[in-house]
Design a protein that fits this description.
Oligomer: single chain
Number of domains: 1
Radius of gyration: 18 Å
Number of helices: 6
Structural class: mainly alpha
Distance between the termini: 38 Å
Strand content: under 5%
Length: about 130
């Protein structure tokens, strides 16, 4: 019997296209950014665009953004509280940046990490709340 782990059948995760490769979807990406209140277009939206599903997907999800916002905020609070209880220190805190002699990057790092945390909570809540339509 062959070992199922020895021979991968193909990539489990496909490379996510860059925004430049998906320029024809800029208008919908702009709607995603505006509705979610984020500068980030994450891999979920980029992969949906590459698969030709972004417009339909966002047309369905966009009206749900406002209603999902309180649950997303709750998820973010829960995730942050849980993270504070982890048994290791943050790798990108101010001390770590100072030790790496890139302390001037701290404000930018904080902004990027916060944007990802907010964006991921909002996207996860929105997408996880979807129901399969037959």
């Amino acid at each position: 019997m062959p070992d199922a782990l020895a021979e991968p059948r193909g990539p489990l995760i496909r490379p996510v296209p860059s925004l430049a490769e998906l320029a024809e979807h800029a208008e919908v990406f702009g709607r995603v950014r505006a509705a979610l209140g984020t500068p980030i277009v994450n891999s979920i939206w980029r992969q949906a665009a590459a698969d030709g599903r972004l417009e339909d997907m966002w047309d369905h999800l966009e009206p749900q953004v406002t209603a999902s916002r309180p649950r997303a905020a709750q998820l973010l609070r829960t995730a942050r509280a849980s993270a504070r209880g982890l048994p290791w220190d943050a790798a990108a805190d101010c001390v770590a940046l100072r030790n790496a002699e890139i302390e001037d990057a701290a404000p930018g790092v904080v902004v990027v990490l916060d944007a990802y945390a907010v964006t991921l909570a909002r996207v996860l809540t929105l997408v996880a709340g979807c129901r399969r339509v037959s």
